[in-house]
């Protein structure tokens, strides 16, 4: 029997347990520090302090503890029980044109349309312009597939199920569902999971993104997390993403694809984060995103001019092959609307950010 190192840590030393749980947050910070150093963003006076922080992270006992826990669980296998699924990580055509435009969500028994000011027909037109192969976190929560979506004046009524089928028909698009990890403690996770899996569209929704793992890992043991992933896979999820931009302890087999962030203020994907994900054999694809609400608001508060925002997206798209990630084009979410920002100067002058991103996705992700 594999020794339960996690329980040993918890019972033998609360101090070491806190170190184990916080190590990856701090390690991630030190990767960022190291990246800033290599990019020359620290003054000479601050570099010794930065190097000291990185050195401290390498000597933290948490790394030893995490290593022990990882070895205890690395032999576990996590496989889906679903049959005849169209989703495999090896399906490279699927990992090509990724768009973030969350559209339908649910909470407290109510289903919501997230694209305020847009009808279903307008939403479908935007997707037809992009022709995405993957829609990141397009639906979220226990959505009612029979609820109605807003339609144009004079148009026939349309249910969530009918709308989602039209979405998938546009360009053989696959939908990634989002589920909050807060539902685990609320006791609703597996009910919500079952509701998402029962949405009657073809192909069915079988790709799940869990949000937000960083805080969740601070309050749950690896044993709990492993059991949670196992149950979700047994329900029928073929691919699961967890960790996101601020990943803590993620063990092999838990996640099939990973997210990295193009973060303020550097607006560059951290190569250290990519290297970390590549150490997990189960991670076959790495997706970059601006992330909301941590980073995108900086593009909305007047800090950057329109040409600077255009340059940020252009750089992220151009660096995909060099860095080893696939860009997720951030179209609309939470007040951010790429249709409403028009570039005034530079190579994309006269275009909206939406139109610029269409050019970028056709150039770099054809």
Describe this structure in words.
With 366 residues, the protein is of the alpha/beta class. It contains 14 helices and 13 strands. Helix 2 packs antiparallel against helix 3 (47-59) and helix 5 (120-130) runs parallel beside helix 6. The longest helix has 25 residues, at 14-38. The radius of gyration is 21 Å and the shape is globular. The termini are far apart.
List keywords for this structure.
eleven-stranded mixed β-sheet; TIM Barrel; 13 strands; globular; alpha/beta; 42% helix; disordered N terminus; 366 residues
SSE blueprint and pairings:
Layout (H helix, E strand, L loop, with lengths): L4 H8 L1 H25 L8 H13 L1 H13 L24 E3 L3 E4 L2 E4 L6 H11 L3 E7 L19 H12 L2 E7 L1 H5 L2 H9 L9 E5 L1 H6 L3 H14 L3 E3 L15 E7 L4 E2 L1 H8 L6 E5 L16 H13 L1 H4 L2 E5 L1 E2 L2 E2 L15 H12 L2
Parallel strand pairs: 1-4, 1-11, 2-4, 4-5, 5-6, 6-7, 8-10, 10-11
Antiparallel strand pairs: 2-3, 8-9, 12-13
Helix pairs in contact: 2-3, 2-4, 5-6, 12-14
> How many structural domains does the protein architecture include?
2
Report the CATH topology name of the largest domain: TIM Barrel
From the spread of the alpha carbons, the general shape counts as globular
Radius of gyration: 21 Å
The first-level CATH class of the largest domain is given as Alpha Beta
N-end to C-end Cα span = 49 Å
| SS content category | alpha/beta
Low-confidence stretches: 1-44, 57-86
Strand content: 15-25%
How many beta-strand runs? 13
CATH architecture of the largest domain: Alpha-Beta Barrel
Largest sheet: 11 strands, mixed
- Elements, N to C (H/E): HHHHEEEHEHEHHEHHEEEHEHHEEEH
Give the helix tally: 14
Portion of residues within helices: 40-55%
Give the overall pLDDT as a whole number. 80
């Amino acid at each position: 029997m594999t020794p339960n190192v996690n329980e040993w840590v918890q019972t033998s030393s609360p101090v070491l347990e806190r170190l184990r749980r916080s190590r990856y947050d701090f390690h991630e910070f030190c990767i960022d520090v190291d990246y800033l150093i290599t990019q020359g963003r620290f003054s000479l006076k601050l570099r010794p302090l930065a190097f000291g922080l990185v050195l401290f992270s390498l000597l933290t006992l948490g790394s030893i503890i995490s290593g022990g826990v990882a070895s205890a669980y690395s032999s576990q296998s996590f496989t889906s029980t679903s049959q005849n699924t169209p989703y495999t990580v090896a399906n490279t055509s699927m990992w090509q044109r990724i768009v973030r435009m969350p559209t339908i969500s649910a909470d407290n028994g109510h289903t919501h349309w997230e694209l305020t000011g847009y009808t279903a027909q307008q939403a479908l037109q935007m997707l037809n312009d992009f022709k995405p192969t993957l829609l990141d976190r397009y639906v979220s929560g226990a959505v009612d597939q029979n609820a109605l979506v807003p339609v144009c004046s004079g148009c026939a009524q349309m249910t969530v199920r009918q709308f989602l089928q039209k979405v998938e028909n546009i360009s053989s698009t696959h939908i990634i569902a989002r589920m909050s990890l807060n539902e685990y403690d609320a006791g609703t996770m597996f009910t919500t999971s079952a509701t998402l899996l029962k949405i009657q569209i073809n192909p069915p929704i079988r790709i799940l993104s869990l949000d937000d793992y960083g805080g969740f890992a601070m309050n749950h043991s690896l044993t709990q997390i492993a059991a949670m992933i196992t149950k979700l896979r047994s329900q029928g999820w073929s691919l699961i993403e967890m960790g996101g931009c601020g990943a803590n302890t993620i063990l092999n087999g838990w996640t099939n694809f990973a997210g990295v962030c193009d973060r303020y203020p550097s607006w560059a994907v951290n190569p250290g984060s990519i290297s970390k994900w590549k150490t997990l054999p189960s991670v076959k694809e790495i997706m970059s995103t601006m992330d909301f609400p941590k980073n995108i608001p900086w593009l909305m508060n007047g800090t950057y001019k329109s040409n600077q925002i255009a340059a940020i997206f252009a750089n992220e798209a151009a660096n995909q092959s060099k860095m080893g990630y696939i860009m997720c084009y951030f179209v609309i979410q939470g007040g951010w609307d790429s249709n409403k920002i028009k570039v005034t100067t530079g190579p994309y002058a006269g275009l909206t950010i939406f139109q610029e991103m269409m050019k970028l996705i056709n150039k770099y992700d054809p």
